[in-house]
């Protein structure tokens, strides 16, 4: 059984899955054998100790009682991630877990009485060692490294850049904060521009606080679970393409756009999950990534009765927003280029 199968099995309690996945006595037969110590060898911290460090002595039960009861390995990470929002009087309670994923988990929180809304969504990124996304460099290309305050880390200048290069504990945490801040800044930019994305409220080192989309504490379903009338499908399809263009106008590509990352609520849609957002003019993979987004959207809406041509749409967007001097496709990302030779055949043409 691989890691993803474990995560599926423990989907409702992902931190319990971590104990099963990363316990060397469960996952590695070699760990059962007694090994001779090596000279000057410093033993690695074992997985159980690493997991226990997430729990931390935060006194969850005594310090802050919540309606949601987290599991053992979840509690410390959850409270430490949401502590800034509690201390800043943005939320007053954690109600339930909405979604557990490889990259992050989303929780429904009660907004503080001083807030303009009743409920908020807290997206908490997993500890870096447990993240499921392995090829994130494809998305990071062309993006600045950002601190948890949103400041740019300048290459070969700051200690932060050196820490990232050496992959120290601080560097790993900074890489995760950068991933989070790109999503937060993309949400801010698109929401200000009128995009159909959740309103972002605050970002912390490990979490983003944003608008909760749903009825009461019941989260809105994703679009892939919804069947639309032909007229409604056409309206939402056009709306999504308008937002894809809006993103491109701000040098952004969603990079994971599909019916699974669009919420449906009271006849309206909301685009979510932007941590991997690509900077369209700084990433050599941008045309292929954009075409993949369009293809996935067209696959869903074709089933809903909308006539659409993913190749033509990609070609039009490519010509208007991405055909710039020096923009060359990567050879190792050519699958969609093979599907769309008329779109990607000649970047300079």
Your description of this structure?
This protein has 349 residues and is α+β, with helices and mostly antiparallel strands. The protein has 2 domains: 3-215, 2-Layer Sandwich (Phosphorylase Kinase, domain 1); 221-344, Transferase(Phosphotransferase) domain 1 (Transferase(Phosphotransferase), domain 1, Orthogonal Bundle). It is built from 14 helices and 13 strands. The strands form 5 sheets. Strands 1-2-3-7-6 form a 5-stranded antiparallel sheet, sandwiched between helices. A two-stranded antiparallel ribbon has the order 4-5. It has a two-stranded antiparallel ribbon with strand order 8-9. Helix 1 runs antiparallel to helix 2 (14-22) and helix 11 runs antiparallel to helix 12 (310-322). The N and C termini lie far apart (47 Å). Residues 1-45, 54-62 and 345-349 have low confidence and may be disordered.
List keywords for this structure.
two-stranded antiparallel sheet; Phosphorylase Kinase, domain 1; Transferase(Phosphotransferase), domain 1; 349 residues; alpha+beta
